[in-house]
From TrEMBL:
Tagged with keyword Oxidoreductase: yes
Protein name: D-glycerate dehydrogenase
Protein family membership: Belongs to the D-isomer specific 2-hydroxyacid dehydrogenase family.
Keyword set, alphabetical order: Oxidoreductase
Coiled coil residues, start to end: none
Organism: Sporosarcina oncorhynchi
InterPro entries given in the database record: D-isomer_2-hydroxyacid_DH, D-isomer_2_OHA_DH_cat_dom, D-isomer_DH_CS, D-isomer_DH_CS1, D-isomer_DH_NAD-bd, NAD(P)-bd_dom_sf
CDD domains for the chain: GDH
Gene3D superfamilies: NAD(P)-binding Rossmann-like Domain
Length: 333
């Protein structure tokens, strides 16, 4: 009997893929699973997803909002493969109770996100979007040479990173090797290896806020990080400092950020994430020239998204063949 026939005779586990994925990724899943996939570009409606999970053993999803109620609708579910590195949508205790394997996609998006962080640093400091609009609005009629037009240097400035994980390390590398920056950081655990590799210094969080010219928040969303940046924290930042957030919107008290910007307590902000996504069209941040607002595109490059989908598929298939997938989230290991 050929391997192919053998494969066909073995019952493949049923899975649902909740967003379109590249052909190579679909092919990998097809070899091992009996699958259905949401093929439209717009996100799958919740009601549709709830119908699809009724009889599957595996789910691959870009959002992964996995609650107790969700799991009740999926009695056969064994594994949720999140096509993202963040898994704040996982209700860990509900998943533990049901012995659900939960995986994510670390490493493959670190460089893409770090690039975007630097895009926001450069853009806010040198006011790139603002001056692009200025030129396009035909306002450019003289040589710009006064305080009102000056930007802020990125090179040799102090970068403060709050949350030094995999992406943070990539940011440090760019800052030190590319921009000669002085880097300080705060993290729940000290990163002695990175301190000696890149000559960076550990600080208490408040000291990062007080000393940095650019504060970059790179924290996962958990109970302990919810609204970790509030009015007291923005109040500690330098008046000329820039705030960057490419992690999760809810780690910031957005009202407090808006106040800090409106009262000129800080210079500017570069934001890829918001408390509510998509952002409310009346959000005051949208009217501020010194704020760059992006639609959560940290990992949104062709290569990063391909690699994330492939990694998620490998996690899914491995989990369903009875082995431990390579990227089980640490709370479920
Ligand atoms: C992630 O992977 O968590 C990103 O935020 C999704 O783009």
């Amino acid at each position: 009997m050929t391997n192919r026939l053998e494969e066909e005779l073995i019952m493949k586990p049923k899975v649902y893929i909740a967003k379109p994925v590249p052909k190579e990724v679909e092919d990998l899943i097809a070899r091992h699973c009996d699958y259905k996939m949401w093929r439209k570009d717009e996100p799958i409606p919740e009601s549709e997803l709830l119908k699809e999970i009724a009889d599957v053993e595996g789910l691959m999803t870009p959002k992964g909002i996995i609650t107790k109620e969700f799991l009740e609708k999926a009695p056969n579910l064994k594994i949720v493969s999140n096509i993202a590195v963040g898994y704040d949508g996982f209700d860990i205790s509900a998943m533990k109770e049901r012995n659900i394997i939960g995986t994510h996609t670390p490493f493959v998006l670190d460089d893409a996100v770090a690039d975007l962080v630097f895009g926001l640093i450069l853009n806010t400091a040198r006011r790139i979007n603002e001056f692009d609009q200025y030129v396009k609005n035909s306002e450019w009629n003289h040589h710009l040479d006064s305080e009102a037009y000056f930007g802020k240097d990125v090179h040799h400035a102090t970068l403060g990173i709050i949350g030094l994980g995999r992406i943070g390390e990539k940011i440090v590398k760019r800052a030190k090797l590319g921009f000669d920056m002085n880097v300080i950081y705060h993290n729940t655990s000290r990163k002695y290896d990175l301190e000696s590799k890149y000559s960076i210094d550990y600080r208490e969080m408040n000291d990062v806020l007080k000393e940095a010219d650019f504060v970059v928040l790179m924290l996962p969303l958990k109970e302990s990080t919810y609204h970790i940046m509030g009015s007291a924290e923005f109040g500690m930042m330098k008046e000329d400092a820039v705030f960057i957030n490419c992690s999760r919107g809810k780690v910031v008290d957005e009202e407090a950020l808006i106040d800090a910007l409106q009262n000129n307590q800080i210079r500017a902000a570069g934001l890829d994430v918001f408390e509510v996504e998509p952002i409310d069209k009346d959000n005051p941040l949208l009217k501020m020239k010194n704020v760059i607002t992006l639609p959560h595109i940290g990992s949104c490059t062709r290569d990063a998204r391909f690699d994330m989908a492939m990694k998620a598929a490998e996690n899914l298939v491995t989990g369903l063949t009875g082995k431990t997938p390579p990227n089980v989230v640490k709370e479920l290991q």
